[in-house]
Amino acid sequence: MAENNSLKDSTRKFITTESLSDDQDHEKRVWDAVRQAFSDQECLGYSHYPLYQKIGEQREEPDIVVADRELGLTVIEVRPYTLDEIEDIDGETWTLDGPPTSEQGPTRTARKKLQKLISWTEGDRLFKMIGGRSFVALPAIEREKWKDRGLDQKVGDAHLLFADDLGKKTLHRRVKVATPLVQPTELDDEQWKHLQGALGGTTIYQEVSEGRTADTSTRAGVVTELQERLHALDLQQEHIGKEIPPGPQRIRGIAGSGKTVLLCQKAAQMHLKHPDWNIALVFHTRSLYDQIESLTERWIKRFSGGERQTYDEDQLHILHAWGAKDQPGLYGEMCKAHDVRKLTVGDVDGDSPAENLALACNSFFEEVDEVEPIYDALLIDEGQDLVVADHLRHEGRQPIYWLAYQALCSAEENGTDQRRLIWAYDEAQSLDSLKIPQAKELFGEDLSRIVSGTYSGGIRKSEIMSRCYRTPGPILVGAHALGMGLKRDGSMIAGFTRQEDWEAIGYEVEGEFTATGNEITLLRPDENSPNPVPHLWEGDVLEFETYETRDDELNAVASSIRHNIEEDNLNPSRNLLVIVLGGRVYKLRAKMANALQRHGVDSFVPTALELNDSYPDRFEKDPNRFWHDGGVTVSQIHRAKGNEAEFVYIVGADQIAREEASPHMRNQLFVALTRSKGWVHLSGTGVYDLYDEIREVISSGTLLEFEFSRPSRVIDENE
């Protein structure tokens, strides 16, 4: 089930961005006290909030930040000083006993960090001044002993927190009565939501149209409303995006839950926090390169408060899993580091990109006796697409995952060997493998429990994301039902066979998965599919049409797309996407592109160098390019993975219908449907049993009833 997202009651409203070490006991004590003091308040708290401000020669983040609806922002800087270490205080300059003697300005530092935080959040459309207080916490010093030294005469203690101020009621009272840097105004619902969005970073994805109100009776108006609407803060996303685990972490989630965005956020946060780390962010689909680079740069700019525009390419590496002649990849970089020849696709004989990569990795292991680690942290996106069948595993392990694990330096925690490998995968969305990536088969029996439990500070080793922000509820339910064959005559094709697994991806479940023929009811509540298009748009968001001939289908789709551009004012590039289904799709893709051109619409086939090139040259191409300004992208499913558009046209349902018992073909339909952020038009030719199934699924909306039968492909979570 989705987690409690309330900032009044949730146990997850306090976020430890990185586990505090044993020599940070003073910080642990204050952080524990803050969590107790604000536990009953409507607030959001961070240990080491990732806003990195240049102070002197260092970039520093605030030790503790609390955003409280009533009190505004509180920044606390924690210092381990004892009385004996403080030699003198002159205004805001504290002289500390050496050797060597040093001068510090902790109260000034705390105030600067608060000022930066306030100005930064006010820039996110907060229309009233946020209240703000800054403190220096001295957990090793008691207030009376401070006074006995006469230090209260040298610096006001209203903004100092001593050891005896750390009780639950005392600490909250001390914060409340302190004179704020900015007089607080209790925030209304919208302002409070914007403050949360500013801290969470969700505001960086808003596109604000000044002076324009969205007319949601038009598709363009709905798109504008989608772009301008600010999502409520998702506490689980806050944890995943901002936490730096000391070891492995698995992020398992439903399609459209935001995993790619969060991995980019996490990589940027690591890079700014630990600029000396060697970090790799790895992905599978080459057309995602520009998107991942852009997202990472946005987070770098965000977390640096605008002081930095991009990342250091010598320390943070955005890598394709394999790599190409003109683009580095994880496998290629490991070959380079170990003086091993990097194999090309022509050197191996797999049946899919994942199999080819696995064969290349296995060849690497045959040549290298001992792998030298070169990374401090490694993050993998699209993890489901890197898994291969058992016969291709290396000593019982998935080859690319084992290569990634071996590529990492040890990050010891509590005397145990840890490797900071973080991988994310979509449920039920692998186009090449029917395997579900579980730790035992990824890393072998000895490491089968590496993502069980939590790290110190409460950082979870495994997260399950159930909310889908991208795809509207009726389309997502349709994708699951059709991809798994839930309403198919005969047995299910694939799917979960336990109630808890359906609940983990956001469904409410009635019925028992114990015997064939049992009635099962699945309901997807709005809270787990918050995309508002079904409520903004009066028509259907998922449509299905059939045609007698392929020409009829392609001409109808092209005509509809022209209407979308000319009458609905949709942007041909980014708002619209055509996906062609099936195995050998190059001819169908070209026919669809040509149909668009006949109807006066420019088309773009991924990897081409220009518009209206229906058959891109295999040697003169841009493998990373998926979009082209002014053209409607027409893509096969493998290229479309990881991309999205408001209106998705899916052509060739008959290609699936002819092989409807194939999990691979069903999965194409699932992936295509989940590319949509607003509407889907699905079409095909002829008459097939699958078409009745499609119509029945569409009529079900977000409430699906079916008879259980054990599928050939079980995708339950067993860890």
UniProtKB/TrEMBL annotation:
Which Pfam families does the entry link to? Answer: UvrD_C_2 (PF13538)
Official protein name in the record: Superfamily I DNA and RNA helicase
List, alphabetically, the InterPro entries matched.
P-loop_NTPase (IPR027417), UvrD-like_helicase_C (IPR027785)
Please provide the record's keywords in A-Z order.
ATP-binding, Helicase, Hydrolase, Nucleotide-binding
For this chain, one GO molecular function annotation is:
helicase activity
UvrD-like helicase C-terminal domain: from which residue to which, for each copy?
632-682
Which domain of life does this protein belong to? Answer: Bacteria
Coiled-coil parts of chain: none
